[in-house]
Design goal:
With 109 residues, the protein is mostly beta strands. It contains no helices and 9 strands.
């Protein structure tokens, strides 16, 4: 049997069990994606697994991120620098100051 091309893989199918809002981070094992549209529970949608996104971080933690740094996502969907108990998200593409409320990240798998 030979492999057969399905699609470019920039987004993958996703059918949530609950309603999911646009911009939600979805973690499936080691696969992380972001919804580009609202998806109703039980409805087929997709999550972007490639691209650059502005993702919230907790400014109360006063963490700076430099471009090129690997970042992770915690269970609340916030960008963190710690890889313990989190999931790899991607790399920072623009420096983010400690007081910034978001980090610009290129998703990586």
């Amino acid at each position: 049997m030979q492999a057969q091309f399905v699609h470019d893989g920039k987004a993958v199918d996703f059918t949530p069990t609950v309603d999911v809002a646009v911009g939600s981070i979805v973690i499936q094992g080691d696969l992380v994606g972001i919804t580009k549209r609202d998806i109703k529970a039980g409805s087929l949608g997709s999550i972007a697994v490639e691209g650059v996104f502005d993702i919230p971080k907790d400014p109360a933690l006063a963490v700076e991120f430099e471009a090129g740094t690997k970042v992770y996502v915690d269970e609340d969907g916030a960008v963190v620098a710690d890889d313990v108990g989190t999931t790899y998200l991607g790399k920072v593409v623009n420096d983010a100051a400690a007081t910034d409320s978001f980090v610009r990240v290129r998703l990586s798998q």
